[in-house]
Specification:
heterodimer; A: 131 residues; alpha+beta; Sufe protein. Chain: A; three-stranded antiparallel β-sheet; 5 helices; B: 410 residues; alpha/beta; Aspartate Aminotransferase, domain 1; Aspartate Aminotransferase, domain 2; seven-stranded mixed β-sheet; four-stranded antiparallel β-sheet; 14 helices; 17 strands; 40% helix; 17% strand; globular
Chain lengths: 131, 410
């Protein structure tokens, strides 16, 4: 638990650097983690070469999902869109640097799921209902 | 009325002896989701599996006889627990959810048509919403809802209006809300529904662990509950139904045991209760559930109810002392066994995770009652639930953990 809430996670949860609105939005998507009711929106801006020039998130989430979104937005700026399309979940988990159990893994990966929805231009969808 | 000796009770529950982290003992406050089991229940199931395990109602060998007797004795004991002597009216299911689905698919399919109305409530667990939605989409009957007021009670004046204006064929509701802890006025709802020509179904999953339930006194038509919420095993639940209604209903699942005779293109359904028990049931679990009923009865249900109410009242008092805590429910004296709350600036998932670090197991989220949370604009709450093996010291750990979460996040 204390590992789960390392200072970096708590800091990013309290003061995320990449939460907010983008003026110019090329791709955006929002979705939920129905287990905890987290709601996340991701916005991405790209240049003419399909390089990501800015990315932000908005919504409400727990410490893990919020910190994960903040880390992910920071990570993808400057990367080609194609690279983000093929990004594996292990890459994000390595950035966060914490071992998650099956329940909190869903929190940690929500940001990547929503980002993929954005860059693949999916229809907005809501998640599955909690049991 | 005496008190429950919690130290002695706790000693009966092996899982309550464990630590969840080194040096951190388990404080189990999630019985509203699944209660833990005492040694007496585990022993009963083990004894059955080791000594009597066989299929029931089929072979004539000694074990089959013993297994059949054990299963039917369990049915009789569980029937008596809810005031029933006619065991034809007690159907074993997997859980309350399956019991409700049985009524919806069997009674609903045979009796509802397009334009009919089924009246539910806004505080239902998904188990008493989604089965109706599935059949409504197919048949075209309509769902109406008794609203929940700002003081977290069912809006009874609106209920009477809906009975009058929509003339529902069925009124289905939770006996006790799994989120608010509110005990709904079951007798009043049932009697009014019957006067208006409607049948009634109760989701009793949160009631049978804490209340003295007598379905005959209630005069309810269908009553459902789950074993695992009342210190029994998972995989077994019960549907009570009035014999005349069950008799007239078509079978739900088809297979062995639910038939008298089978030809290649037809079958004759078995008598009650077997008509609704297709396939080999959870025999050992039924035996276990009978043992949990025996365990609960030693205290008497009114004593368990007052114990659960006293603890939840203490928890509400202690939580209310913390700045930034909001109780989602009518408050002290009006909640049975569960308290759901939010903490300003701390997500329920984080509250629950920090609580786990001090040993306390609680439930974060929407507790399978998403429409209720949506109505009150909540993305989720944290729920603590209490039963016979909880004591004031457990509430103190809960409060300590909540304060820790606030220190860490808010």
């Amino acid at each position: 638990m204390d590992d789960l809430y390392r200072q970096m996670i708590v800091e990013r949860y309290k003061n995320p650097l990449h939460r907010g609105e983008l003026n110019q939005i090329d791709f955006e998507f929002e979705d939920e983690n129905p287990f905890c009711g987290d709601h996340l929106r991701v916005m991405v801006d790209v240049d003419e070469n399909n390089i990501i020039t800015d990315a932000k998130f908005d919504g409400s989430g727990c410490a893990i999902s919020t910190a994960s979104a903040d880390i992910l937005m920071e990570y993808i700026v400057g990367k080609p869109l194609d690279e983000v399309k093929t990004m594996e979940k292990e890459e994000l988990l390595e950035l966060i640097g914490i071992e998650f159990g099956p329940v909190r893994l869903k929190c940690a990966l929500l940001s990547l799921k929503v980002l993929k929805g954005a860059v693949y231009g999916l229809e907005e969808g809501s998640g599955h209902e909690e049991g | 009325m005496g008190l429950i000796d919690v130290k002695k009770v706790k000693a009966d529950f092996p899982i309550l002896q464990r630590e969840v982290h080194p040096g951190v003992p388990l404080v189990y406050l999630d019985s509203g989701a699944t209660a833990v089991m005492p040694r007496q229940v585990l022993d009963a199931m083990r004894e059955f599996e080791e000594q009597h395990r066989a299929n029931i109602h089929r072979a004539v060998h000694t074990l089959a006889e013993e297994a059949t007797i054990a299963y039917e004795d369990a049915r009789t004991e569980i029937a008596e627990f809810i005031g029933v002597s006619n065991t034809k009216e007690i159907i074993f299911t997997r859980n309350a959810t399956e019991a409700i689905n049985l009524v919806v698919q069997s009674w609903g399919r045979a009796n509802l048509k397009a334009g009919d109305v089924v009246l539910l409530t806004e505080l239902e667990h998904h188990a008493n919403l989604v089965p109706w939605q599935i059949l409504a989409a197919e048949i075209g009957f309509e769902l109406e809802f008794i609203p929940v007021t700002e003081s977290y009670q069912l809006d009874m004046p609106v209920f009477y209006q809906l009975l009058e204006s929509r003339k529902p064929k069925m009124v289905g509701f939770s006996h006790v809300s799994n989120v608010l802890g509110v005990v709904n006025p079951a007798e009043e709802i049932i009697s009014a529904a019957h006067d208006a020509g409607a049948l009634t179904l109760i989701d009793g999953a949160q009631a049978t662990p804490h209340l003295l339930v007598n379905v005959l006194d209630l005069d309810v038509d269908f009553y459902t509950f789950s074993g695992h919420k009342m210190i029994g095993p998972t995989g077994v639940g019960v549907l009570y139904g009035k014999e005349a209604l069950l008799e007239a209903m078509p079978p739900f699942l088809g297979g062995g045991a639910m038939i008298k005779a089978v030809a290649l293109r037809s079958f004759t359904a078995n008598d009650l209760p077997y008509k609704f028990e297709a396939g080999t049931p959870a025999i050992g679990q039924a035996v276990g559930l009978a043992a949990s009923v025996r365990y609960l009865k030693q205290f008497t249900m009114p004593l368990i109810e007052s114990h659960s109410r006293r603890l939840v009242d203490f928890a509400i008092d202690e939580l209310n002392k913390i700045k930034g805590i909001h109780i989602f429910g009518p408050g002290k004296g009006r909640q049975l066994a569960v308290v759901s709350f939010t903490v300003d600036g701390v997500h329920p998932h984080d509250v629950a995770q920090v609580l786990d670090s001090v040993g306390a197991a609680v439930r974060p989220g929407r507790h399978c009652a998403m429409p209720l949370h949506t109505k009150f604009n909540l993305t989720g709450t944290t729920r603590a639930s209490f039963t016979i093996y909880n004591e004031k010291a457990d509430v103190e750990i809960l409060v300590k953990g909540v304060r820790k979460a606030i220190d860490q996040f808010a």
